[in-house]
Amino acid sequence: MKPLCKISIIAAALALIACINNDIPYPVVELDITEIAVEGTSGECTIDRLSRTVVIPLAETTDIRNVRINGIKYTEGAKTSNELNGVFDMRYPQYVTLSLYQDYEWKITATQTIDRRFKVIGQIGETEWDIERHVATVQRRDDYGLDTVTVTALRFGPEPEYSWDGDRFKRPVDFSNTTYPPTVDVECFNRSELWRLIVEPKEIGIDFTRTAAGSEVIWLRALGVDGAQTGFRYRIKGENEWKEAEQGWYTSTGGTIEAVLRHLQPDTKYEVVGYAKSDSGDKESEIRIIKTGRLFELPNASFEEWSVNDDTYYPYSSIDKAWWGTGNPGSKIAGINISTPFSGTLHEGATGKCAQLWSQKASVMGIGKFAAGNCFVGDFAGVVGTNGLVRFGRPYTLRPTSLKGWVKYERGVIDCVPTAGTGGKTPGLGENDEGVIYFALGDWEPARYGGTAESPVLVDTRNEATFFNPTNDGVIAYGEIRFTASCDWYQFELPLEYRDFDRTPTHIIIVCTSSRYGDYFVGSKSSIMWIDDFELCYDYK
Q1: Closest CA to 75 of 50, 54, 51, 104
Q2: Fold held by 117-202
Q3: Contact 523, 515 (CB under 8 A)
Q4: 51 pLDDT exceeds 70?
């Protein structure tokens, strides 16, 4: 009976164990690629922790089919599904999965810009390159014919990686046989490529390929005729007289012509037409009707309005007028305001107050963290432990040309760096601090970037993947100015560089900070920035 009793006890114990659930959750640890070493690049590789992608910019002298990756570094403790060391065909993405408590898949891609050229006299527009099929196509004005075509430029890539016999293209070439067009044997990286060169006739004319309106400017692009006299005319809709776009507003590449119409009236409908003049006659494009945007002034742009609640300064008179935010609600837990109104020495002609952004070290119960002086378009989202959450952005759908303002900066020497360091991502102790002002327009999706419909981009100082990245997909236009030396009051103008005119902005972001690496808790307690009289500009000089 004793053995049976013993077995019964063991079975009961096993049953009891089986009823115990392991409800203790695994910690969430984001696993990142932190560094990658690649041969034959033309610049720094871009590591986007938010989308978990790495983009390798290859030099045009690098064989994209044989790219050597010498090593990748990951978050400490991460295990990898495969080690990407060796030679890879980077025409196709490479993938690696990082694992610890959770799995994170990363995608590694390459980009490469090769300066290829195929141009002819009388060309219309830019050359079309079909890289996969090895076909280069140009359009040429139809009155020039195809039997005697003069090639003015021919290049398939840099020598000696690319070589070809181009002697016969030094004389006029017959392109009239469209079934069997001229070909070129190109040797590249010990491989042979047969390229077909096609010239297509096109009726002389000019066609719009882009129209985009600002509030006092209109951006235009059209496909015209290389060598012809091309241009744009415009007028307010309903008026009789056309105005000619000024010569200084144009840029052109081959037969593609671009211009920015300036000094326009906001919130007004304009008619725009392109023209091409040649010895065979004049041609005009269709008339486009484009409406300019309204004007919008930044709220509290002179930083005169402040309110105080529980000894915390806010850059607005009431919560319903909030446009700007600061890190004060976080730093005030330690009894300090890093951004405050200032009524001392202002810039020439100024009265009242400005904003003073002073980097400091905040301590709570003996735990100290560096806090960069800051002011940004958005709001403070909260505190998690000693870490801050901020949301960038406010709704905005216009296309300004620049941001103007007044600034003064005192640069300190970095005296605050986290004990664990930053893995080489920032300057170290004893190096000079930097201030920065940056300005962005975008169509960031709150679901992807962690914010709200009002302020879509969430920055969580616990997670570097959330730090603002000017190259992320949501950015439509961007500009920044860095302060690498102390300066007295001066008026700056920060131009916007537009990357996409096909998308309309949904939000605006402006960030000013006295310590550029404040997200990493790195900077100087002596760095101070003063800002005043900001203004959005909608025209070019």
Answers
A1: 104
A2: Immunoglobulin-like (2.60.40)
A3: yes
A4: yes
pLDDT at position 254: 67
Whose structure tokens read 């003015």?
Answer: 152
Q: Which of 475, 495, 504 is nearest to 540 (CA)?
A: 495
Residue 477 has pLDDT above 90, yes or no: yes
Query: Any residues with CB less than 8 A from the CB of 453 and at least 6 apart, and which?
Result: 395, 446
Q: Is the pLDDT of residue 15 over 60?
A: no
Report d(CA 196, CA 178) in Å as an integer: 10
Helix (H, G, I), strand (E, B) or coil at 6: helix
DSSP track, 271-288:
EEEEEEEETTEEEE-PPE
CB of 525 closer than 8 Å to CB of 415: yes
Q: Where are the domains of the chain?
A: 33-112, 117-202, 207-291, 307-537
Tell me the C-alpha distance between 452 and 393, whole Å.
9
Domain 117-202 in the same topology as domain 33-112: yes
* Both tokens assigned to 19: 């009823």
Element (H, E) at 330: helix 328-331
- Cα separations (Å) of 247 from 170, 232, 244, 381? 34, 10, 9, 49
Handedness of CA 238, 244, 245, 246 (dihedral sign): negative
Strands 183-188 and 288-291: unpaired
CA distance 423 to 146: 61
How many helices (H) and strands (E) the chain has is answered by 3, 42
Q: Give the residue carrying structure tokens 């091409």.
A: 276
pTM, rounded to two decimals = 0.74
The answer to whether 393 and 452 are in contact (CB under 8 A) is no
pLDDT the model gives residue 9: 32
Using pLDDT thresholds of 50, 70 and 90, give the confidence band for residue 31.
confident
Q: Measured over all CA atoms, what is the biggest interatomic distance in the chain, rounded to whole angstroms?
A: 117
Q: Are 181 and 173 in contact (CB under 8 A)?
A: no
User: Phi/psi at 108 (nearest 5 deg)?
Assistant: -120, 120
Distance CA 198, CA 183 (A): 9
Percent of residues, the chain, with pLDDT higher than 70? 92
Which amino acid is located at 365 in the chain? M
Q: Which two tokens stand for residue 15?
A: 């049953």
Give phi and psi for 495, each to the nearest 5: -75, 150
pLDDT, residue 277, reads 80
> What number does CATH give the domain 207-291?
2.60.40.10
CATH class of the 307-537 domain in this structure? mainly beta
8 A C-beta contact, residue 130 and residue 137: yes
User: Domain 33-112's class?
Assistant: mainly beta
**Of the candidates 128, 183, 123, 132, which has an alpha carbon nearest to the alpha carbon of residue 150?**
123
